[in-house]
Prior knowledge:
The chain is α/β, with parallel strands linked by helices. It folds into 3 domains: 9-303, Thiamin diphosphate (ThDP)-binding fold, Pyr/PP domains (Rossmann fold), CATH 3.40.50; 328-481, Rossmann fold (3-Layer(aba) Sandwich), CATH 3.40.50; 505-636, 3-Layer(aba) Sandwich (Rossmann fold). Strands 7-6-8-9-11-10-15 form a 7-stranded mixed beta sheet, with helices on both faces. Strands 1-2-3-5-4 form a 5-stranded parallel beta sheet, sandwiched between helices. Helix 4 (55-64) packs across helix 12 and helix 6 packs parallel to helix 7. The model is unreliable at 197-206 and 216-222 (pLDDT under 50).
Amino acid sequence: MLIQPGELLAQINSPADLKKFPKDKLVEICDELRNFIVDNVSVYGGHFGASLGVVELTVALHYVLNTPEDQLVWDVGHQAYGHKILTGRRDDFHTNRIFGGISGFPKRKESEYDAFGVGHSSTSISAALGMAVASKYKGSGIQHVAVIGDGAMTGGMAFEGMNHAGVSDSNLLIILNDNCMAIDPNVGALKDYLTDITTSHTYNKVKDEVWKMLGKLSKFGSSAQEVISKIEGAIKSAVLKQSNLFESLNLRYFGPVDGHDVNHLVEILKDLKDIPGPKILHCITVKGKGYEPAEKGNQTTWHAPGLFDKVSGEIFKKSPSKPQAPKYQDVFGHTIVELAKEDERIMGVTPAMPSGSSLNIMMEAMPDRAFDVGIAEQHAVTFSAGMATQGLIPFCNIYSTFMQRAYDQVIHDVCLQDLPVVFCLDRAGFAGADGPTHHGAYDLAYFRCIPNLVVSAPMNEEELRNLMYSATKHNGPYSIRYPRGNGVMPEWRTPFREIPVGQGRIVKEGEEVAILTIGHIGNYAVEATEILSKEGLNPAHYDMRFVKPLDEELLHEVFGKFKKVITVEDGCLMGGFGSAVVEWMMDHGYQAQVKRLGIPDQVIEHGEQIELHRLCGFDPEGIARAVRAFSEVSKVS
């Protein structure tokens, strides 16, 4: 079912088409754009609340700016659906996040209007500043705008960018989209600071007069601007009884303004185009604006609700015909509470993903022992290291793709000091529809080269529980990676059993070919061996559990018995599990034919996990095909 746009939206194939409409049509265009997003996401799925909250801002930006010459950077990208629709992708929008369709995030290769590819938060200010400095160097007068959510402002990189912007004298406008939400509600002192600004009735009354003076006096040259800037700063400081955070970074601060008044936004943006230097516009918005269930309901749920009935707001849930295996993240969430009840040293840490990682279960049960530190992965790791020095056992739960942002802290602050921090890497392997910015493709490779760090992955829920339990017995850094989605064991609450570090297991005895797997993807090997048994083939299957240290006893058995070995991993082939096995084989003087299955050395786009596994050849049939190929070679030889 192709969603039909409204009468006005149907005429907009580019920002140039938008500019043809008179200003009094912008409210109607916003309504049609919002309805188009609601209609599409309710039927096809995707992120939801964030883009609804910036409909008016999106329309105003493209109405005032000369995009794509003027450069517009959207932080994270959840909020960029309206931007995509207005910039020539309206008729393809139903393919959003679908295998072979358009990306759910801005992407340079997809459109000239996507000035910078985004997916991880807090990058927009640095990127837009780099563009602005380049334009200044080239003598260009184009505009550069970064739209960043208040949640992303908790990321240290955003402050680094603002700190540099304040001394750059570049033509940069930062728009702070303040809705008090990232995916989960925002936390920290910055949230409280912004709330103080937005709720100060005195300041909001005075700032309009300051704005009017700026508009009038700015026409009289730099000396007048300098005077009014000092007046403005003094008023802000006096009214708020504190210096303005942004002004102290030498950013001209404007706002807060109503982010849902499109006509007012147009006038403000026109004025700001004429004010030189780095500046910030503080817009107050509502996540999910214009769709009542998203506005007034659980905004975390409506961040990406899946399919839903747009009339009733009912979110469709699949009704399983038989007991379902739980999500790995929920096994983590319940298991850490079980462990913490028995061991008072255990703490939980996550950077802004309590619901995504299921640490919210512990935060509710033990609020004094579980911490959401905001979008601050580096801080999360070093904060955990600090607790570990005091005899605690922090479980630091970070998505695999976001752990990349804290790599130095893992090495320097945890592993070099050999501290007992347990890293639980959620969304390891292919993340699905979020695509390459969110795939957890590299953690096996980038973790196994670090001294002192145990690197493990469970094949099922029972192994996840046992690895978490075992990590509390290990006096040093320990990582456990597991994928997005469901496991394979409906009856998963099994008694804890310690797994010795570096111990794998034999899943199935066999002959001629050995399949070595790491993590959940081993369940595909089980399916593959069942397929092959019907064809008269009998490969062996080993669940290695650990990439570091490898089970040397098991590997001596494998290479002493088999001359054909297949390794399977939901991770990059370059330097990953398969590479570790081949290195071990060479170091110990064995010779065998080894076929490595995993993620190749290329960017893999978005799609359902099984679609991407099939694309890369390590789905059940891909594994079976590799075994058949080895068997055919044996017949020929």
